[in-house]
Design goal:
Blueprint: H1 21-41, H2 50-57, E1 61-65, H3 66-72, H4 75-82, H5 84-107, E2 117-121, E3 140-150, E4 154-164, E5 170-174, E6 204-206, E7 212-222, E8 236-242, E9 254-264, E10 281-291, H6 305-315, H7 320-326, H8 336-347, E11 352-353, E12 359-360, E13 366-370, H9 376-386, E14 390-394, H10 400-403, E15 405-409, E16 416-420, H11 422-425, E17 430-434, H12 441-446, H13 448-452, E18 455-460, E19 463-468, E20 472-477, H14 490-493, H15 498-501, E21 506-510, H16 516-531, H17 536-559, E22 563-564, H18 566-590, H19 600-616, E23 621-622, H20 624-643, H21 646-649, H22 654-670, E24 676-678, H23 679-688, H24 693-705, E25 709-712, E26 716-719
Parallel strand pairs: 1-2, 8-10, 13-20, 13-21, 14-17, 17-20, 22-23
Antiparallel strand pairs: 3-7, 3-9, 4-5, 4-6, 4-7, 7-8, 9-10, 11-12, 15-16, 18-19, 24-26, 25-26
GO molecular function, one term: DNA replication origin binding
EC number: 3.6.4.12
Domain MCM C-terminal AAA(+) ATPase: 320-526
Amino acid sequence: MSGWDEGAVYYSDQAQFPDDAVGANHRRHTTLIKFKEFIRNFERDKNVFPYRESLIENPKFLLVHLEDLLAFDADLPSLLRSSPADFLPLFETAAAEVLASLKMKVDNEEPKTEEVQILLTSKEDSMSMRSIGAQFISKLVKISGITIAASRVKAKATYVHLSCKNCKSTLDVPCRPGLGGAIVPRSCGHIPQAGEEPCPIDPWIIVPDKSQYVDQQTLKLQENPEDVPTGELPRNMLLSVDRHLVQTIVPGTRLTIMGIYSIFQSANSPASHKGAVAVRQPYIRVVGLEETNEASSRGAAAFTQEEIEKFKKFASQPDAYKTVCSKIAPSIFGHDDVKKAVACLLFGGSRKNLPDGVKLRGDVNVLLLGDPSTAKSQFLKFVEKTAPIAVYTSGKGSSAAGLTASVIRDGSSREFYLEGGAMVLADGGVVCIDEFDKMRPEDRVAIHEAMEQQTISIAKAGITTVLNSRTSVLAAANPPSGRYDDLKSAQDNIDLQTTILSRFDLIFIVKDIRMYNQDKLIASHIIKIHASADAVSADSKVSKEENWLKRYIQYCRLECHPRLSESASAKLRDQYVQIRKDMRRQANETGEAAPIPITVRQLEAIVRLSEALAKMKLSHVATENEVNEAVRLFTVSTMDAARSGINQQVNLTAEMAHEIKQAETQIKRRIPIGNQISERRLIDDLTRMGMNESIIRRALIIMHQRDEVEYKRERRVILRKV
């Protein structure tokens, strides 16, 4: 043992760290081989190789299901989830090599290796945007939301070509993917010869023409409106998409994305963060993207076999329509026809695409007009909770841009981009607009196109585009005087333009009628609701019912697209002609046009209602029964509103008619032709003569309808020469 401590070099062939460069390389190589085997050998059915075939058909990109990867090898998905930035490029290399070998077998020639983009998808549930924190950085995440903005396409370098300004030597530096940049070395590796000047510090200049680029675009994804907690602002997340995912998405599209949660140094970070090197902005680098169709955009899209069986069994019951209507706003007493209309709105008709490219809307629009405290807003709130997609907005707090779309300038890049409003965000669902009459007329005009053509056209700041807004509109409004006045004509009570009224399929005039028995029932109902409000078991049952109704609506909208039968079409044609005839006769009798026009739009409305009623029973054909019910609903709503007013509401007795005639005579005596007098003074003068004030007012309204008197400013009455 002597001399063991003499100067000598001892070494060990064990690595200093267990996962050194050699071990990592070996691991990468084995993973690459596994990825190649997966693409080549994965069988879905006997002798069906989906990935190999799709790679030959479309060599640009390959859509990989993580469930298939898990079935093939249990380690691969966990590697992709934990460090996607390392293993996804490896997967793309494997796909490119497999493609090259497949082409060589087919063409028998040496092909050049082409890039293949790997897109990932999985059936797992999406995470909430609010739950993604720092622990997910550089991990694979899946979130869903609605796109509110899309930038222009930019070219992003994958390899930057550098040239030394002293010795002209070149270098290709790889760029970090996503929003990351390239790290340019500070010094040149060239060793100077004798007498040659050494390269200075920072000698590299970028040669853009010789660099390699891919297309890149940034999107802004916002939480789905229905996922935002009450009273909170919706969160949004920056997304970066590249290569074949570029220009596939427009604002207003609902997405489910898989991506790598990453961070970048924001150029326009606030002044307080200027010196903070460690503060970074999060974004998601998208590696898989799927559009969520309208019916499945909320909750799980897939229906279990058990659920489908239950739905079909329910639809086959003879009283399915009645049961669905009883589940609509059960806390509201009465208003049966309004509930039926709301049910039709939730289910909707069938959207049709004609051979010449014209699209006919299938969504039903409903207007509730009437007295305060008649549960109009409660209906709107119920629909917001129950519809698969819904946006609630108030008329006074909404502008034209907020309802349709606005063009916004980005702070950092100074370029304009489009941000969708309520009608775009609710694409495929319902927009509930409360206080519809309080909207400014110019803002109300903005939704004309969205209500009939179901698109929103934008031509602002150099952006000309058309956005989809395939929505139903449920609006609630009060008459101009606050309450519905029976002494006024329908025209004065419904203070909305005919252009917007004709776009509503059903218009309900909701009145607060004072009747002893009804008031007693309503009072009992409301007291009962307040008394049983805290019963927890009942509450959970109600939420379960709501959830069932939501799922049933979702299933019906997805699976069922009814059409009218021959006999139903003939019946509907005759009914429409009869309605037009009646309205013409009424116009001739009263001498004035109906406040709500009955046009071809109303015929289409009855068609949509018939289809919605058939859809509730999962029937693919709308029969005569559905048409009869649709015509009945139309008659009790829009037709009633069109006929309403003084002529119908007030049944004059012979005595009252005589008194009104006397009042008219006195008014004509009191005011010389062409002169004016204050309405208040005129009424005071005539009441002193022993006349009833309501009779005088009624006489004035009738004379005003006949154009015998006219009102000027400050309610001054002028007698016209007739």
